[in-house]
Amino acid sequence: MTLTDQARQQHDNTVKEISTAVRRYHDRGERFRIRHGSTNSTRQTATKGQHFVDTASLSRILEVDKARQTCLVEPNVPMDQLVKATVEYGLVPLVVMEFPGITVGGGFSGTSAESSSFKYGFFDRTINYLEMVLANGDTVHCSEDENTDLFHGAAGAMGTLGVVTLLEVQLRPAKNYVRTSYYPVSTVAGIVEALGEMAKDPSIDYLDGILFSPNQGAIIAGRLSDDHPEGELIRRFSRAKDPWFYLHVHDTIRKDPSKTVTEIIPLAEYIFRYDRGAFWAARWAFDYFKTPFNRLTRRLLNTLMHTRVLYKAQDACRLSASQYVAQDLGLPFSHVAKFIEYTTETFNIWPLWLCPLKPTPHPTINPPPASGHGASELLLNVGLWGPCPTKRQDEFVALNRDLENKLFELSGEKALYAHTFYTEDEFWRVYDRNWYDTLRKKYGATTLPSAYDKVKRASDVRLGLRDRVLDVRPIGGVYGVLKAFRYRYSSEYSRYKQNALL
Known about the structure:
- By secondary structure, the protein is of the alpha+beta class.
- The chain contains 19 helices and 16 strands.
- Strands 12-9-11-10-14-15-13-16 form an 8-stranded antiparallel β-sheet, sandwiched between helices.
- Strand 3 and strand 4 (70-73) form a beta hairpin.
- Helix 6 (188-198) packs antiparallel against helix 12 (333-346).
- It starts with a helix and ends with a helix.
């Protein structure tokens, strides 16, 4: 796919419109936010009465360069469309987020990682350069050689340093399949140790783990392959009749807890293996509506079980604002077992997702190497997603604040796509305020919300009447389902499905 003059002109025209809108707010001294369309954030944010710059039209793939193994892409291109475009040239991004609707810009400006991140780090570490509109309306380029401090600072900064309008993504050769092995484990310490050792194996391309309980889990290791021996079953997870991935892993290791099982999965099916059921978060919807959770009900409700639709329901009903925990928490390997002991006693949420991560060098908003730990030491992300043990709002907040304090005590950091309950002083105890404020002043970004403005929740964002009504069971859930159905049969969703990889 070669960059054409027409595509470049369309892009430049869109950027000029964005630049003009930004400059207008800057000249009036008015703060603004970026409206980019879809989101996979679970944060509840107060936006009433605020100004917005709309970047939703930046959704084109401009070029795939097979020789350089790069892709030039606008920020609102979702993962499934990016992968579809690159595999046509025998290439795939180094890191692909597990939900197909996560966008390239969201992956860069948020904190995004996946099972190849033990090799390549967070998604933003696979970007060669950026085009950005600064908060004064100027357009600049950022890379390792140009505006380097902004290039690194904007990663994970949630759009608080400028408006990202173009990115060059690194690619690697793709293969048709991922040969996937499931290694049963029986202890928390065992899975943590084994993940650390397997992350050193250069033959492994993808690596993550699931803990189903303190004494049962699986390590999942994937290796790219073009081999498909005759007669070997190809395993899929995207169709209504297919199992949810995590349930398949659980069933596989329960059959023989001493045996490693290997099977072959098509590349796209592997990359987006957690799409149906949103890992396992959709299971709680069955519990909420007191609906049996079995193969038949999952198949009957399959049309609502993909993450694009589930996020519409979640965003509408706001149940995660007061009833559900949704956090990704990165810690040094040596502290993970103690942290899981804490989450077991405090939340008792299972399963847990474990994903080794190559940390980002300082300075950064993304989780860096922990203090006292080497820059090359991997972090282990713990995905804690499930119902909170209390439904009382004050207790919900108190438990989440306790979680943040425990994380800080154990040298960990959380992904900022999720709810945060820090006070402002607590937030900047975790992140480098001097570096961040210096960067904002240098690039004139003070008319944009700060990182803390973007993530704060606590008492600064109170539940309004609408949210209090939606908090009443089952009003919120029913409202979310209606919104999900409306989106599922909308023209917007139809356009996505027409261009979908699966």
